[in-house]
Amino acid sequence: xxxxxxxxxxxxxxxxxxxxxxxxxxxxxxxxxxxxxxxxxxxxxxxxxxxxxxxxxxxxxxxxxxxxxxxxxxxxxxxxxxxxxxxxxxxxxxxxxxxxxxxxxxxxxxxxxxxxxxxxxxxxxxxxxxxxxxxxxxxxxxxxxxxxxxxxxxxxxxxxxxxxxxxxxxxxxxxxxxxxxxxxxxxxxxxxxxxxxxxxxxxxxxxxxxxxxxxxxxxxxxxxxxxxxxxxxxxxxxxxxxxxxxxxxxxxxxxxxxxxxxxxxxxxxxxxxxxxxxxxxxxxxxxxxxxxxxxxxxxxxxxxxxxxxxxxxxxxxxxxxxxxxxxxxxxxxxxxxxxxxxxxxxxxxxxxxxxxxxxxxxxxxxxxxxxxxxxxxxxxxxxxx
Length: 385
What we know:
This protein is of the alpha/beta class. It is built from 14 helices and eleven strands. The protein has helices spanning 28-42, 63-70, 86-99, 114-117, 127-133, 145-159, 163-177, 191-196, 224-227, 260-271, 288-297, 306-310, 328-331, 339-351, and strands at residues 10-17, 52-55, 76-78, 105-112, 199-201, 204-205, 215-223, 235-244, 280-283, 364-371, 376-384. A nine-stranded mixed sheet has the order 3-2-4-7-1-8-11-10-9, with helices on both faces. A two-stranded antiparallel sheet has the order 5-6. It starts with 9 loop residues before the first strand and ends with a strand.
């Protein structure tokens, strides 16, 4: 079934973060409930209006548990596990469901307390994955840092990318975080500081790697008719796309290419835009290398040229492509799955309510999520309508 977004446009009418950082006085479910209530208030709604629910607790819980906690009986639900980029996938699925008339108010929610719990399940979980992992596990690469380190090393070898260019990504994220009072890390960061930080998994150093925090949020999507009653300015979903490879790196022809090549093409094509039209970019910065790959695969620069692209503060405040404007997973918050926070920041930028970090005249924003060991990608194009 196809959905005509020109006839049945879809909007994000409310967004909210859950408690962030270190959360000792809430559960994951109560954190989502708090964010959901705030996001629904922005949309001019309550929980009684929700008839579709989307969530992913990294394979631990799903839509049934969250709906039960919130007292909902949805007529549409999805808890597909696409890792940290699941929420861009959910935005795509909710958009299609809304345009097809399968629901009217969709709630996307997520929360994690991986920092306070001091745990994150990142092991092979099934016989199927064990079968795939036999070609990588014997080499003891720490998951997922080891896989991303391999991508970075290959990119350096293949294209001449330098540690200084990777560091530019971390510095840009920190400069944005210094303008965000909710960011976990706000102290100044220079390229030299990144290069002097401890090596974790060569060539990735401590400051090339995302935070480990608690956090989450909620996003409310709805139809044009329902969005008219929103308390805040709705943001239109222009396009979305998703794709995934196999789980492991060893089966790939080129590990410097991600599934974002497909998700970006699909999203930009649906939206009718090009990379040159994008005012604000929210890439999934779990690692500095993941931002470079996203820039190339979505077409902001040619393959192999992202290192040169980010030099000189291109992603930082005042740069030609403002990116990670909340501070991203590198400096603001990374609660196990970052993708929902990318959508929230993109919406706030398009509403013009990002405070000191506001990008002037932002009209089109892109949120790009990834998941697994570079296995999944999903891209969402949003516009100030």
